[in-house]
Design goal:
This protein is 16% helix and 46% strand. The chain is an alpha+beta fold. The protein has a single domain, classed as Gamma-glutamyl cyclotransferase-like (Hypothetical upf0131 protein ytfp), CATH 3.10.490.10. The protein has a 4-stranded antiparallel sheet, with no helix packed on it. A 3-stranded antiparallel sheet has the order 3-2-7. A hairpin with a 2-residue loop joins strand 5 and strand 6. The radius of gyration is 14 Å and the shape is globular.
Length: 101
């Protein structure tokens, strides 16, 4: 559990170079994508090791921390995000854009 002073304030953000895929018809995960691909979601700049520990525990070994370009608050930074790892059954992968079409 995080101390109240560390509760994140999420801001609209765009993480570049990745895309969201759905597998097993219910799990959404960020995966690598073409250079011009992006994911529009929300971001928080983690400022403490204790919060990183909480995030790593929540995401489990199914994800790894990777660097990417993130557009947020009118600027661009190189920061970290979580990316899906492991042997995902590609029969169930489909682009999130197809689900919303």
């Amino acid at each position: 559990m995080l101390p109240e002073k560390e509760i994140p304030v999420l801001k609209p953000a765009r993480a570049c170079g990745g895309m969201i895929r759905t597998w097993a018809s219910k799990y959404r995960a960020r995966v690598d994508g073409p250079e011009d691909a992006y994911v529009d979601r929300f971001a928080y700049s983690v400022t403490s090791e204790s919060f990183w520990d909480v995030l790593r525990a929540y995401e489990t070994d199914n994800y790894e921390v990777v660097r990417c370009t993130i557009e947020m608050d009118g600027g661009t930074v190189r920061d970290c995000t979580f990316r899906s790892v492991g042997d995902i059954d590609h029969r169930y992968l489909r682009d999130l854009r197809e689900m919303n079409a």
